[in-house]
Amino acid sequence: MTAIRLLLADDHPVVRAGLRAVLESELDIAVVDEAATAEAAIARAETGDIDVVLMDLQFGTGLDGIAATAQIASMAAPPLVVVLTTYDTEADIIAAVEAGAAGYLLKDAPPEELIAAVRAAAAGQTALAPTVTSRLMDRMRAPSTSLSPRESQVLTLVADGLSNEEIANALFVSQATIKSHLVHIFAKLDADSRTAAVATAVRRGLIRRTGP
């Protein structure tokens, strides 16, 4: 039996150690290396001896997991990437899927779910946590109330306290474009203010909760 060759990409040593302990208890899974940065994960994935990458979304510095996933997915013969994160927001899920992730799991998933996801990815199947599947189904059922990736980005910056001018500068667009996005966001969320829009989006899991 050929073992699934796995790369753990997470900036927390304790998390990597815990994942290694769980996954190496399976005879058909071998953790061949670890990466503490997204850049290191990309470089290691390029060597060609990795089948599946377990990828965190947030690293301390440098690229994030979405950017790393996109770069890995664009390789000539890429390993499959399964995102393993604490974030279950629609914006993160959609971004990961669009970047080429074969799976999306939450870090509080039971060990058996994690192991099954690694095996599914290695077999060319999609591996999604139940919560993630639910979010995607909700988006499909009510596309008119779902935010586009750009709208999610704009509202996340609103949640961070940025003004229209600051958001426009950050995204290299005009303030008129930002105002247009906000009009569409307010309509989709049935909100009459920036605060209400952020609160609704956070409650529905469309953007990440900000602050402590």
Quickly list its features.
212 residues, alpha/beta, Rossmann fold, Arc Repressor Mutant, subunit A, six-stranded parallel β-sheet, 50% helix
How does this model look, in words?
The chain contains ten helices and six strands. With 212 residues, the protein is of the alpha/beta class. It folds into two domains: 136 residues, Response regulator (Rossmann fold, 3-Layer(aba) Sandwich); 61 residues, Orthogonal Bundle (Arc Repressor Mutant, subunit A). A six-stranded parallel sheet has the order 2-1-3-4-5-6, sandwiched between helices. Strand 3, helix 3 and strand 4 form a beta-alpha-beta unit. Helix 8 packs across helix 9 and helix 9 crosses helix 10. The longest helix has 15 residues.
User: Could you name the CATH homologous superfamily of the largest domain?
Assistant: Response regulator
Portion in helices: 40-55%
Residue stretches low in confidence (pLDDT < 50, at least 5 long) are none
CATH class of the largest domain: Alpha Beta
Round the Cα radius of gyration to an integer and report it: 18 Å
Task: Work out the oligomeric state of the chains in this entry.
Answer: single chain
CATH topology-level name of the largest domain? Rossmann fold
The tally of structural domains comes to 2
Distance between the termini: 47 Å
Average pLDDT over all residues: 88
User: SSE order in H/E notation?
Assistant: EHEHEHEHEHEHHHHH
Proportion in β-strands:
5-15%
Q: Which CATH architecture of the largest domain?
A: 3-Layer(aba) Sandwich
The computed structural class is alpha/beta
